[in-house]
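Input chain follows. Return structure tokens only.
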Amino acid sequence: MSGDHKTLIKGSPSQYVKLNVGGTLFYTTIGTLTKSDNMLRTMFSGRMEVLTDSEGWILIDRCGKHFGTILNYLRDGTVALPDSYREIMELLAEAKYFLIEELTDSCQQALSKKEREAEPICRVPLITSQKEEQLLIMSTSKPVVKLLINRHNNKYSYTSTSDDNLLKNIELFDKLSLRFSGRVLFIKDVIGSNEICCWSFFGHGKKCAEVCCTSIVYATDKKHTKVEFPEARIYEETLGILLYESRNGPDQDLIQATSSRGAVGGLSCTSDEEEERSGLARLRSNKQNNQS
């Protein structure tokens, strides 16, 4: 505008100045603006020319949305940050522009905290190809449990209990993935082979066990596909795969004990903690028996 001109601003700390920040007007003292070492101190201590209009408003070409927060921080040395992630990002941009290091650090810490809070407790990748599956299995240091589930692979009609058992397999997978999410990588395959419902267990990049939950049964007139829910077997293999958490590899005697199916005939699933304790106790007992 024709009345705008550049000038040096320097005065006593108690002197008030008028600020036009992106169209939003503010009224504050030079003492507030020069309170800490930042760009505003440079602008209002006579070291940098500032642009003023014909009415004496000092023009600052920034969005005025968060400038009031900036002023309150300069006045008090602390300020309540916005609640939303987006607004903290906006305030961070202004703090960086005005070179206010302490406020910048506070914004960055608040953003990091919100990112941690938003981080899912449990992630279950849904694989889209065999190549992607191999990449996931080989790139993790955790044991892996994969559930292949594809109801549409069936060539025959299902038995009356198959749909219910299919759902039970999915529910058990979800339950185990929540419980062991920090120790085991769970992945789900819905486009895989000709199988309908199959569990696979991997340790150190190699398949250790597999539990196929489907079979063909013969009726008087035609074949049917039967989906089963071998809950005890699945629990056993899941507990066994925990042996692969060690980077040095699992104890071979314990692996041999894990493969003994007779040990789980009377598995009682009363609670998650009791299941793991009783399962591991059986593995240790089998190891001692094998050694004797």
